[in-house]
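hey m, so remember when u said the tokens were messed up on ur end? i reran from scratch. heres the input so u can diff it against urs
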Amino acid sequence: MPEEVIPDEIRREYEKTMQRAITKKIGSMFIIVTEDTYDKALTAFNFGVAGVEMGMKVSIFFTSRGINILKKSYKPRRTHWGEAPIIWKETSIKRKGGVILAELMYQARDMGAHFYVCYTSMISAGLKEQTLLDNVKVIRMAEFLGLALESDIQLVIS
């Protein structure tokens, strides 16, 4: 059975949802990413883009294996052994009218989301700043905690 593109009425419903008034003013969201699998990265950037679309200040902090997502040479890995290859997932996502991981990453950054990477995790993994994407700020745990404490929403993707 061939997969179909998302119907226009579903897209219109999504647009209405984005326009609804939020009863509580939420000014900032902090997302913590600890894994480097395709699904975890996709989830983090989906939340990030949605937050920016809703007018929030979005900060995404990558620690542990999550730091690999910000490497220039990042190749997503599958969540489970035996799972469909990433290229198949992305083909399916595109066919349904969705956005793939690389596009979401750049969309989030271009819309104003801030990317942070854990200094300690970088040192542990032997990574250098030059191996990371542009516009990524390396911060220590104390800075991370300060940002997290100031945010209205904290999400952990692990």
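this time it looks ok to me. The helical segments are 8-19, 38-53, 86-95, 101-111, 119-125, 141-150. if urs says something different then somethings off w ur setup not the seq
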